[in-house]
Protein 1
Amino acid sequence: MYKLKRILASSIKYAALLLGAFIALLPIVVILFASLKTKTEYAATSPLTPPVNWLNWANYTKAFINGNMLTGFVNTAFILLISIIGATLTGSMIAYILNRFKFKGKSLMLGAFLLATLIPGVTTQVSTFQIINKLELFNTPWAAILLYLGTDIIAVYIFLQFLDSIAVALDESAMLDGASYLTIYWRIILPLLKPAIVTVIIIKGVNIYNDFYTPFLYMPKTSLQVISTALFKFKGPYGSQWEVISAGIIIAIIPTLIAFLSLQKYIYNGFAQGSVK
Amino acid sequence: MLKFSNLSYSKQRLAIIVAFSFIPLALLITFAYLPVINMFKYSFSDWNGYSKRLEYVGFENYIKIFTDPEYFSVFKVSLYYFVATFVQMGLALYFASILSFQTWFKNFFKGVLFFPSLMNGVAIGFIFLFFFKPDGTLDTLLQAVGLGSYVKLWLGNPEIINISLAGTSIWRYMGFNFIVFLGAISSISSDLYEAADIDGANRWHQFRSIILPSIKRILQLNLILAISGAVSAFDIPYIMTGGSNGSETFVIQTLDVAFKYSKVGLASAMAVILLLIVIAVTLLQRLLIRGEED
């Protein structure tokens, strides 16, 4: 009786997992199918039918070239690189002084960063837009870069958490050797923060790569489009050509998939850490 | 020559505190606090976003939002996303619990369930346009399993459009909650399970008396964040429908009012209301959690 119950429970478990995996994969798999079909094939077959020729790349070349996706990748890479380096440096710098020094206004500073987490970015866009406009950054990549840097509070938290676990004795022994605070930060703290930096890079990277709203609103110029906005533009000219749109979708997902498969372990840890405030 | 390392440590300290906090604070003030202050200011004006002149109109914008049903009714759409969050949490918790025990192909299932939450929002929007379109994935699937009579205009019918969109939102965000829960559950000491096994507790008992209490805080946090998530829903409906057929959310409306109709004053008042809701909810949550700890 007991054994029967166990078997039943276990079959329910695997049925649920398989159903879950099916629902997670099906919407993506049909897009992969569509992206490899020719126009006539797409029109004649159902979405669930696999393509005849698995090596039909015609839609991919069309999407990549006509959809300006190369520009999108170049712009995304540029913005990603600068924002991530900047966020890592500024985040670790402020965390360093907040964690290591006692000074007037410290709790005020910490409070200011904390309070800012209460403000959801999407509510303040209307007036943030005016600031970007006044700084004459509208339609430049710096609009996005500054916004990605400026709103980064998660990074500060992650660095603060990690700094707690780095012994102050290390700083002190370096000071006995005559190292300046700058040397301590650069030579001791920053290298030891590596796991935290990886976490920040992943969380930040995923957010920036997937963000649609910031580039859409602040950099509408075609030459400045990123992957998200380049893909969004497919809605117009290719509205009914789903085989081309599908290829564009897959092109946009591939970098995420590669990053996920190669960094799985760090990504799981990073996301679990980033969410615990 | 003056070298930084020749300064006394107290001078160095001062220099480094100022130097290291300058940029982060400047960014924080410019892009977090200044917009909020300006937003309150604009919300009492009739500004259109570009003219030099700005006239203060008192509470007129706020009165308009609260009295004109056109503006306030969009909150009804939030209810769909709010309900969806409970489904999302439930699923995430279920999958996290079963995958925290021995399972075949554990890493495969973990990866597949989590991957959607890493995907590009625009790509997800398009994938689900294809999923819900007439003769798209869902219709074909229903027909294939003999449920063809349930085929509907998933994105064309105002009665069900928000259910379709909220479903997309579950698909997108479930994996994130799942991985957070999984992390929390895996930090529970295995001794507890062993002790429970010896006591003859089944999986359900273990879930109720070991897993649930240990992740209660994170569950509460997520559930209450769900409210602010629901009122600020934007990406999915904007990319998929642009807010047509009764799928307009408060944020889509706010941005349209500001950038399409150039009513920055009115839009700011809407944003202030949204901000106040989110802050009230967050504070409420902090109070509730603190109250329980005492």
Protein 2
Amino acid sequence: MSLRIVVCVKYVPDATGDRHFADDLTVDRDDVDGLLSELDEYAVEQALQIAEEADEAEVTVLTVGPEDAKDALRKALSMGADKAVHVEDDDLHGSDVMATSLVLAKAIEKTGYDVVIAGMASTDGTMGVLPAILAERLGVPQVTLLSEVKVEDGKVTGRRDGDTASEQLEASLPAVVSVTDQSGEARYPSFKGIMAAKKKPVESLDLSDLDIEAEEVGLEGSWTAVDSAAERPARTAGTIVKDEGEGGKQLAEFLASQKFI
Amino acid sequence: MAEILVYVDHVDGAVRKPTLELLTLARRLGEPVAVALGNGAADAAPALAEHGAVKVLTADAPEFAEYLVVPKVEALQAAYEAVSPAAVLVPSSAEGKEIAARLAVRIGSGIITDAIDLEAGDEGPVATQSAFAASFTTKSRVSKGTPVITVKPNSAPVEAAPAAGAVEALAVSFSEKAHGTKVVSRTPRESTGRPELTEAAIVVSGGRGVNGAENFGLIEALADSLGAAVGASRAAVDAGWYPHSNQVGQTGKSVSPQLYIASGISGAIQHRAGMQTSKTIVAINKDAEAPIFDLVDYGVVGDLFDVVPQLTEEVKSRKG
Ligand SMILES: Cc1cc2nc3c(=O)[nH]c(=O)nc-3n(C[C@H](O)[C@H](O)[C@@H](O)COP(=O)(O)OP(=O)(O)OC[C@H]3O[C@@H](n4cnc5c(N)ncnc54)[C@H](O)[C@@H]3O)c2cc1C
Ligand SMILES: Cc1cc2nc3c(=O)[nH]c(=O)nc-3n(C[C@H](O)[C@H](O)[C@H](O)COP(=O)(O)OP(=O)(O)OC[C@H]3O[C@@H](n4cnc5c(N)ncnc54)[C@H](O)[C@@H]3O)c2cc1C
């Protein structure tokens, strides 16, 4: 039987752009270019490698996001994924992690899966918890933050490099996996891949397709509320000296004046 | 007074500093009840009592070490059900965040991750978060369920506040889900004898400019003269000059020390994401245009191979 892999990818504002919040305190997506979260490229890469190792496999990329989020799906398709699912609904605007994960879990169940693969964190919210939440919601094992991953004989194995130890993990499928940026460089889409992506199917789903009520998601339905967002005051310009032989000593003088020595 | 559940991060009973900071924050919200799990859990009690825990719930079972995350979630859930707290606080480590998130789903609550400050508000705790590589500061609340909040290291002072710290055994029974992900083997990280990166008061980091694994000795010597932890940029890590566990930045550790010294690091947004909240920032870089200089309190435009050894000597001689 074919191995069904679903990759969760997020469309995020470019980190090198001028990211900020809109008046309703959600992320302003209009003023900044969006792209496929760079950390999700690693998830797509591992999905493609797992598919290449399997006898038969299908890689579906899934996103929850506005109209423009299709760009993220196209990028993943041009890397080599087979098809895409886009959950798009005006009522999703402002969803927090509980709301987003609810939608993703329903869409994953509807699509059908043996393995779900996600990035270690998005580059905007950077919570790093969505994969664990998905595992909880789907009721399957979490095999997260892997720097090495393998899927074989109905099992997923991998290495997790934690704070105090490096662990070798194992779980049976179905499972939710997340991979770090140590898992291996992501491939660049080839010209052929980019052309092929244009013909690949992108399925659009809305909340009613997933039996989710508008009240369960979006700004109003979310489990958290943002009360204020303030730009951090610019740092006052520091002292900059040019080293003319005494740079280390001058720096020591500064550190002493600040009581660090 | 409301009880606040505090998840304890400890190694064989030695409580890690971020948990003691959490107790300071918890006392602003109510009476801290600490939950310590795994090997040596009961040994953690005196330190927790010393810092304000009115009660310490402990449990040990082989499951905590043999399976990933879920056994700890189930124990924390048992504590939650026993206490009915007004909030649950967990240190923002990778594992802490996953434990907190799964607990939040189970108890039907919202979650806030990576808070950098916490205060009591009319509608429950208000968390300060730092967004978009620390260029924004937000204030948020959990609006559904019992607030579950993870807090970054260095967000509050460690304060002694002796309390009863009565130790109680926590009864936990594990579901089948707890056995989902097996930890087949574990290789503990070797200690370098230097302070823990995320907890250190001073961090000295090296980047691509250090130009080779052998030259990281210069960075280490400076760190040792200051009693500091050593960090590295991803460029230095990817080149194999320093272990990934020392990477500072978006996909590495996020640090918030009193003093951060960057040598041979340009200051890319992903690096800044992990160090921009440092109190005092110092950089040594030979390129006067490097973006890191936009952040610094003090910068030296110069060759790190000249400046760093001179600084190390000067620190040593001043410290006598
Ligand atoms: C600065 C900031 C702070 C925030 N703080 C909070 C908070 O404290 N609490 C809260 O509930 N919400 C918060 N949010 C909202 C939250 O980030 C998003 O709702 C949400 O998409 C999930 O969190 P994440 O992107 O941080 O996920 P992470 O857990 O960091 O993402 C991990 C992986 O999940 C997958 N993924 C995440 N989102 C999607 C998606 N929409 N479609 C497909 N795959 C996806 C990707 O594979 C990604 O790599 C915050 C958002 C911002 C911008
Ligand atoms: C998704 C993603 C996640 C990332 N996560 C991280 C992360 O967690 N941490 C991180 O650091 N990066 C991260 N990066 C990489 C980041 O974008 C930069 O590539 C990286 O930080 C550059 O490291 P660097 O400053 O050491 O190297 P460079 O940018 O090459 O800078 C080297 C600097 O050294 C200076 N220099 C050279 N020789 C000397 C000398 N003799 N004396 C003094 N100065 C000298 C140069 O002038 C230059 O400014 C990430 C990137 C992506 C896309």
